Amino acid sequence: MIRFLTNAEMRSADAFTINELGVPSQELMRRAGEAIADEVAAVCAGFSKKITVVCGTGNNGGDGYVCARALMERGYDVAVFAAEGRLSDDCQKVKGLYNGKYVKEISGDIVVDCLFGTGLSRSVSGEFADIINAVNDSGAYVVSADIASGINGDNGEVMGVAVKADMTVAVAEYKLGHVLGDGADYCGAVTRADIGIVASGSYACAFTDEDIKAFFPRRKRNSHKGTYGSACIMAGSEKYIGAAALCLSAASRSGCGYVKAACPVAVRDALVSSLPQVIFSEHPDMSASALAIGSGCGADRDLYEKIVQIFDNYMGKLIIDADGLNVLAEYGKDVLKSARCEVLITPHAKEFSRLTGLRVEQILSDPVGCAKEFSCEFNVKVLLKGATTVIADGDKIFLNLRGSTALSKGGSGDMLTGLICGSAARGLSLVDAAVCGAYVLGSAAEEVSKEKTDYCATAADILEAMPQTIKNITQ
To answer: Which of 30, 47, 134, 406 could cysteine-pair with 457, CB 3.0–4.6 Å?
Structure first.
């Protein structure tokens, strides 16, 4: 797993390493600057050796002076563009050790961005905004130190203006700002440089193929349908038959033993011939291993009453999506606290806004905090969809980094609900099922995008890619 720290968590790790382990801050700055220089030198293989290092006035700027000195000692043509202002103590000290040349304009084959670090908390303006614009207009290959300058380290927000980096060297640990909001679009390819800072605790984590592979254990030959559980999905209406089709089809590819549909007669009649493996009924199977409700159901009072009845009587794993969330928002979300079963909700930002009363902008500025707070207050698991999906189980946070904009189309959420329900039915916990489902769906979207582009890929294409995607992960 890959872990991601907040600014506060990173400051705490810095302080622990300096104060408790006795590693001087100057030594950490030396390690950081030289690690950045190593990455820049690797990039130089495809460029000439003219490098400009843009140094700010804080410790990120100090990393830049160390980097510039290290590259100069290796024989590269290096110059520093120095921002004006009062320098931090450590920055002042390492600047004094740099005896190379300075420039007044930003140019070169490679520009190293060491203007701001992850702790930026105010909008960039004036001279600093001009410097960032000059970096972006330089036409150079841009390597950012720790995070692209102008990007908020906690949420990936562009603080007025930001460097558009080709590559970012994350110092010590990955930061949430690398993957949330606009961070991924501005930071480019992110690599981590371990400089010996010790961070201990429970941090947000993202899974890799190797982690997801564990969710697909080798199946026993001596097994049967009942071995792999039953998934029951309440989905669809006369208006939204396709939502049910996608949800049920994805569940059928999850590995569970039975997929059952609780849907109106019109939905059954439309789908029964194309989904012969699905067992259709008008009423949910309350003995199912996992139950999902909401996709294309229509947001009315009747749906809310069905959810309340499930809360009172169902003892398995429950996933609530789409219209199920909308009726909770309209008729009362406090009923979540009375559920006898485990509950996972899967909103996108707008649905979560309706449910919480928060503005969409508030949610996007702190998706981790908002998901965590709701999870703790209502004792539910939360999967908050986005370019980086946030999954909260109380204070535990998981991130899904897989996916493409091919998922920014109707039907993606329905497939995710089906995958999660089927995965939970075959034995995964709700959180593991959420992590697994989001990862598989995102990975399938990436594969389809390579062949058909994000523009042309459809939900049906992604659905058909799921078997090969799972095969690739599990081999």
So the answer is: 406
